[in-house]
């Protein structure tokens, strides 16, 4: 009997699950927000993931429900579970990826290393946090942020006035997350997959580079990583996946500090941009592993296939026309580059594709991946990095 996987959300993550599903002989069905989604190549239903009836009707057509994004309201997830559907990851785990304050509180209970943080409900509380943290803080909206939206570096509490006003108008008594500004050497990510029955598999730790708050490049494995740091990242991710009961792929975003500590920044409970390199660079891609994990099938090997893999994102911008028009040039110029076109309109700032190159020499691989991405319109200019 054919096994049917239901993916809520029709973005590039759902799209990249399709080849893995085809190879494993699984049927993939997508609940997309709009016609013509990035994942329209799979059987697609168009509907609102915030509407309980739509989501319940979708769940009835599949064997397991999983996600392209983390925004399905917790109440709906609980209704699905109550109706007997397999939801992977389930609401008890997913709520910590939906709410940054809940995540900080829970990781605090587990003793996981994190930036200093506080829940701040008004300008006075933020002012007190600033005074205790050298006059700087990174403030974050607890819910709904992604790609650096909902993240702001502030030196005065008044710079958060609009967010506090929005919280008050919302009337639900919400708060902002305030964090110390971490002096990091670089950002790392540890991806792990976990089955409902408990087995886990970890990929090599990667380095991620953000430009304008968005993931721009990933180097796998993280160049020159100290084996002690790698072990620490693996133990932190394993502890989080196990204690929170995460199923499927979990990405743990980490800061490697200038004084050699690892601090957890963010969690994502789905395939993640920091794992796109694994399609060509690992024995088992994060997309295949996610499908295996949510079905509680044995996990695949996660070893790197080459000494170096580099992934470069392509964001829509003034220089990006249709990727379909531009990629013949990139293919001709960089024959080692593997180009992934998400089939989206190249609106400014939108992730429309990525390029991966594997090889033996970091400098060569970086050069080739950047050259191909630049031909597709990626803006890799320096001086663009900020929170
Ligand atoms: P999101 O994933 O919602 O976009 P993040 O919390 O990952 O938001 O923050 C986006 C980026 O902002 C991070 O990748 C990092 O570069 C920067 N950043 C976030 N928190 C801090 C912090 N406490 N100190 C320094 N930089 C930070």
Name the descriptors.
D-amino Acid Aminotransferase, Chain A, domain 1; Rossmann fold; 32% helix; four-stranded parallel β-sheet; Dna Ligase, domain 1; alpha+beta; 4 domains; binds adenosine-5'-diphosphate
Overall description:
- Residues 104-295 form the ATP-grasp domain.
- Helices cover 32% and strands 26% of the residues.
- It has helices at 12-24, 52-59, 74-82, 91-98, 100-110, 123-132, 161-170, 227-244, 278-281, 286-294, 323-333, 362-375, and strands at residues 4-8, 27-32, 43-46, 64-67, 117-120, 137-141, 151-154, 176-179, 184-194, 200-202, 206-211, 214-220, 248-257, 262-268, 308-315, 338-341, 351-359.
- The strands form three sheets. Strands 9, 10, 11, 12, 13, 14, 15, 16 and 17 form a nine-stranded antiparallel β-sheet that branches. It has a four-stranded parallel β-sheet with strand order 3-2-1-4, with helices on both faces. It has a four-stranded antiparallel β-sheet with strand order 5-8-6-7, with helices on both faces.
- The longest helix is centred in the middle third of the chain and has 18 residues, at 227-244.
- Bound molecules: adenosine-5'-diphosphate.
- Adenosine-5'-diphosphate (ADP) binds at residues 115, 138, 140, 145-148, 150-151, 179, 181-182, 187, 210, 213, 253, 265-266, 387.
């Amino acid at each position: 009997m054919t096994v049917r996987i239901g993916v809520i959300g029709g973005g590039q993550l759902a799209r990249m699950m399709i080849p893995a599903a085809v190879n494993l002989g699984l049927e993939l069905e997508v609940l997309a927000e709009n016609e013509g989604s990035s994942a329209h190549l799979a059987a697609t239903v168009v509907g609102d993931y915030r509407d309980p009836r739509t989501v319940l009707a979708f769940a009835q057509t599949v064997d397991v429900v999983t996600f392209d994004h983390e925004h399905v309201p917790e109440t709906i997830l609980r209704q699905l579970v109550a109706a007997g559907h397999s939801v992977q990851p389930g609401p008890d785990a997913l709520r910590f990826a939906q709410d940054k304050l809940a995540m900080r509180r829970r990781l605090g209970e587990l003793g996981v290393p994190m930036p200093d943080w506080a829940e701040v409900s008004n300008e006075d509380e933020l002012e007190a946090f600033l005074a205790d943290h050298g006059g700087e803080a990174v403030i974050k909206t607890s819910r709904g942020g992604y790609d650096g939206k909902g993240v702001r570096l502030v030196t005065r509490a008044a710079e958060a006035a609009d967010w506090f006003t929005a919280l008050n108008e919302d009337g639900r008594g919400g708060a902002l997350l305030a964090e110390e500004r971490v002096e990091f050497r670089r950002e790392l990510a540890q991806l792990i997959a976990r089955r409902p029955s408990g087995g886990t598999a970890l990929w090599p730790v990667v380095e991620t580079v953000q430009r304008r708050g968005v993931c721009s490049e990933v180097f796998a494995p993280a160049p020159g990583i100290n084996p002690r740091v790698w072990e620490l990242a693996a133990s932190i991710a394993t502890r989080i996946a196990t204690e929170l009961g995460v199923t499927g792929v979990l990405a743990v975003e980490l800061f490697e500090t200038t004084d050699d500590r690892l601090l957890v920044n963010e969690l994502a409970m789905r395939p993640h941009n920091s794992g796109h390199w694994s399609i060509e660079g690992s024995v088992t891609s994060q997309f295949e592993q996610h499908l295996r994990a949510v079905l509680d099938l044995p996990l695949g090997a996660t070893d790197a296939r080459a000494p170096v893999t580099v992934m470069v994102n392509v964001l829509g911008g003034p220089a990006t026309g249709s990727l379909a028009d531009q990629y013949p040039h990139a293919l001709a110029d960089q024959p080692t580059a593997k180009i992934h076109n998400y089939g989206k309109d190249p609106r400014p700032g939108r992730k429309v594709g990525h390029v991966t190159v594997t090889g033996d020499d970091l400098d060569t691989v970086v050069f080739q991946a950047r050259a191909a991405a630049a031909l597709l319109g990626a803006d890799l200019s320096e001086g663009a990095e900020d929170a």
